[in-house]
Amino acid sequence: MRRPLLALALVVLTATGSGVLTPGLAAASTVTVTSGSTKVLFLRPNLDPVPDSAYATPDPYKTGSQFTPYQTTGLRDEIDSLVQASSAGSTLYASLYTFTDQAITDHLLAAHARGVKVRLLIEACTDGDPAVCDQSVQVDSLVAGLPAYSTSATGSWVKQCYASCAGGGVGIDHNKFWVFSALSDGRTDVTVVASNNPTNPQQQMFQNMVEVSGNAALATAYRDYAARKVAVTGTTKVYETGHVDAGAFRIWFSPRNSPSTAEDTEITSSFSPESTRHDVFAAAIDDVQCSTTATDDIIRMVMWSFRAARPEVIDALGDKADAGCTVEVATGEHQDAIAGLAARGIRVYSMDPGGCRQSFFAVGSGVNSECSDGSAHSKYLLTQGVSRKDGSTHAYVYTGSHNLTNGALKKNDETLIRADDATVYNGFVADYDAIKTAVIDIAPSRYPDAVFSTANASATGDQFEPAVASYRGTDGHTTSVVAFSSGLLTGTGNEIRLGRFVDGVRQSEVVVRTGGSTGWNYKTPDVGLASNGDAVVVWADDSNGNGGYEIRSRRVHPDGTMTSIVNVNSQADGDQSQPSVAVVPDGRFAVAWEDLSTAGASSIRYASFSAADARLSTVTSGYDVPVQAVAGGTYHKPDVAVNSSGTTVLAWEDDEDGNGGYSIRGITGTLAGVFGSIVAVHTGDLSDGQQWEPAVAIGSGGTWYATWTDDYTGRTGSDGNPQQQIYVRGFTGTTAAFAARTVSGPIYTWSVDTTGAYAVTTQTAYQSDRVGRQAHSDVAVDGTGNAVVTWHETGQATGLTSASSGSEVWARGIGPTGATTNLFPESRLSVFTANRQDDPAIGVDQNGTLTVVYVDDWDGNGGTQLYLRYGLRNCAQTC
After folding, report:
1. In 3-state terms, the chain is what percent helix, strand and coil (to 5)?
2. Structural contact between residues 258 and 280, judged by C-beta atoms closer than 8 angstroms
3. Which is it for the CA torsion 729, 800, 349, 864, positive or negative?
4. Cβ-count burial of 484 within 10 angstroms (0-12 exposed, 13-18 middle, 19+ buried)?
């Protein structure tokens, strides 16, 4: 976990290599797939890291120039062109939720003026509360410019629906469909079913739109649905029943009375007669006949909102996974269905890419309380396999406005449309793959070589306590080595293993230490890497099973062969634990550890060794170099780093006065073990409470970074509970290079004054419900002297942290002055967010390429494995 700077010249790769990108932003795009008279458009936003200055600009509707590089207007442009192409005397139906597009507003009114019968259903209460109904100025213009609906209306009309158009006083009109009877290009009966609302913010999200021309049955189905909606006048909820077939399409409209006899009849009619589901969406999943031997029974889902209030869908997905289908889901990281899906063994790829740390909208603002930037607003299900209904193989697409919420099924006006078209299906599969890639790459144009894989080759037992080191060779390839404990999280019999990776691809895995007398155990490994590829592994060693540990090291060559085990600590009295190692490029290395004598004396000890494993540091009266050994104090968890010049730095948990309060102390010196004065890493208010788990890294110029967990007693999060945070501070020798700062932030919050004007202010990170409780940091330095910090965090009781259902791993770049400009943005690295993702370790090569390894138990079964993230780089807007 403790990375020295490996000083080589930065390597610039050719176009066939990895990691070098041209400056400038990637382009957002609209992808079009055509199959006969069906056209599908997919919106792919630009996911490049957004500068802090853009978030700090008061422009909540994203109309400014700082936002447009991240948006694509392809879907709204398609709608706008269709509105403008509507022929005089034709009819145009639309049913919409939120609407803020001024150009489409103007063109709708212009269409009305030239004789198009414009007929609109628009939700007035976008929060679903009929007591608080408001809409945009664009909707107000449409209401003012079009006749109000009446039963005698024969031309244009608009009807605002108050908490849905289906009555009952609950729900929303969440539809997003358009129907054009005739266009100037000669097309007739053009139906558009979309996932997006015509608003600027939704141009920065993954979306889809299905456009079908010349299908009279489909167009009629949607016009008839609109006619049913405007006819509702009472206070009782009016439910939709059955389905409508229209060629290759089948449509289910909502709200639906589920469960009910009518709905059960529809489910057994549309899907398997043996289905026991009461939820039509769950029945669509249940229709797939899975096999434990087939490889093409696949269920994929992208869902903007997936709530635990749809338990039948969770169960249906779980049952299909149990039956042998491949099942994958991509949904918003803060969705409360994730825990239930994970419990059924379903991998959930969590959107937003890189996490919900920043947003152009503030949490809880009147504009939007969701984390939307770069997320997936699409709502689709893809099923491939034999249908239990007819015994034939189908590749179905289910899409529309239908989120997996209780309201979407039972309260809202929604549409769910199924397409049976191989070309359309393949287009949606490609879109799903793009979303999955975005989750892994975070910003695909900036980090195209990102890797997400299992770090451990052995799946026997638990894998935990990872450490990692990275080095970039003269051939332009990055070697990473991962040391870890393998066995059982509790108990003895744990061995030490080492995995070797080149450019994120596993090359080998070897057992470094195993076996011994009854009760043997090895734990808390650390690893460093020399320029020749030799890995130096250290660990706490109890080979004789007596419960007392000593520190051992071993050098592992690139071919997997190993040197003899080295006894690191000279004095075997008492217990030695928590070793940390740092390796110079020439193979020399330093080790620090925690020593507790049989008499109870606590100290931090140090030793250094040559490339041939000969001891370099002094031994006095049988003891290794005492870094901190004031009598009466207690000292824990040292970390050591060394640069190519041999400058060495250590940090540790320090309770010198023995009062039970721990602070972080540091010291610098030579590789030989000659040290200067102890430095107080944190000062002022940060001295209150406890400070834990230090990590250090040092650059070639001598600037060193210390990170730690701060448990300041006066800090509470937005949920009112104590809030730990990770701090980082830089030093040159004993002089502070920058003041202690949090790794999180700035976080921005919006406010609205009495005139309706928006203002933006910064908010301390712990007060934001986007930031969880942080711990277990690690830090590494790249070839330019910039650092990257990683940590894990658990969520607050309220808010939008995905860690509210577990823990997750984050990272961020920090410069030698404490600045973050154009360094790796604060991002979530854990692809899955349910249950446990924690204890990260980081290595960074000279080119700034990250290797992060962490402990994972995403399905919550109590067994742990290691995941590796490689290929992200310590850069942001320009790489």
Report:
1. 15, 40, 45
2. yes
3. positive
4. buried
CA angle 635, 637, 640 (to 5 degrees): 110
Tokens 């620090």 — which residue? 592
- Interval 326-351 mean pLDDT: 92
* pLDDT tens-place string over residues 661-719: 999 999 999 999 999 999 999 865 555 789 999 999 999 999 999 999 999 878 888 78
Q: Which pTM value belongs to this model?
A: 0.93
Helices (H) and strands (E) in the chain, counts: 11, 47
Question: Amino acid letter at 273?
Answer: P
Element containing residue 605 per DSSP (H, E): strand 602-609
- How far apart (Å, rounded) are the C-alpha atoms in residues 423 and 327? 21
Tokens of 653: 């948990």
- CA–CA gap between residue 872 and residue 879 (Å, rounded): 11
The C-alpha atoms of residue 647 and residue 664 are separated, in whole angstroms, by: 20
| For the chain, percent of residues with pLDDT exceeding 90 | 78
The pLDDT of residue 795 is: 81
Q: How do residues 479-512 score in pLDDT, each as one tens digit?
A: 999 999 999 998 899 999 999 999 999 999 999 9
- Judged by DSSP in three states, 708 sits in strand
* Start-to-end CA span in the chain (Å): 25
* CB atoms near residue 344 (< 10 Å): 17
Q: How many angstroms separate the CA atoms of 510 and 506, rounded?
A: 12
Alpha helices in 402-520 (DSSP H): 406-410, 422-441
Burial letters for 77-114: b for 16+ Cβ neighbours within 10 Å, e otherwise?
ebbbebbbbbbeebbbbbbbbbbbbebbbbbbbebbee
- What burial class does residue 61 get, using C-beta atoms within 10 Å of its C-beta: 0-12 exposed, 13-18 middle, 19+ buried? middle
- CA-to-CA distance for 442 and 872, rounded, in angstroms? 8
Question: 543: closest CA among 582, 513, 566?
Answer: 513
pLDDT interval class at 127 (50, 70, 90): low
What's the gap between Cα 282 and its chain centre? 26
In whole angstroms, how far apart are CA 789 and each of 376, 715, 825, 826, 844? 28, 22, 11, 9, 10
Q: Which sign, positive or negative, has the C-alpha torsion 786, 849, 354, 506? A: negative
Q: Is 848 left (phi over 0), alpha (psi -120 to 50) or beta?
A: left
Q: Cα–Cα distances in Å, from 451 out to 439, 454, 852?
A: 11, 10, 10
How far is residue 395 from each of residues 425, 588, 730, measured CA to CA in Å?
Answer: 6, 59, 56
Query: Residue 326 phi/psi, 5° resolution?
Result: -80, 125
Main-chain dihedrals φ then ψ at residue 467, nearest 5 degrees: -140, 150
Task: Report the alpha-carbon distance of residue 681 to residue 736 in Å, rounded.
Answer: 9
Give me 214's structure tokens: 């010349």
CA-wise closest residue to 96 among 33, 155, 138, 60 = 138
pLDDT digit string, tens, across residues 27-57: 899 999 999 999 999 999 999 988 877 777 7
> CA–CA separation, 83 vs 142, rounded Å?
14
Q: Is the peptide bond before 259 cis (omega within 30 degrees of 0)?
A: yes
Q: What is the radius of gyration, based on Cα positions, of the chain? A: 30
Give buried/exposed letters for 160-173 (b at 16+ CB in 10 A, else e). bbbbbbbbbbbbbb
Across-strand partners of 300? 328, 382
The separation between CA 769 and the C-alpha centre of its own chain, rounded to angstroms, equals 16
For helices 102-113 and 74-84, give the axis angle rounded to 10 degrees: 10
Tokens 């009266």 locate to 621
Contact call for residues 693 and 703 (beta carbons, < 8 A)? no
- For residue 503, what are the β-bridge partners? none
Antiparallel, parallel or unpaired: β 865-873 and 589-596: unpaired
Q: How far, in Å, CA of 287 to CA of 322, rounded? A: 14
Structure tokens at 661: 């309060």
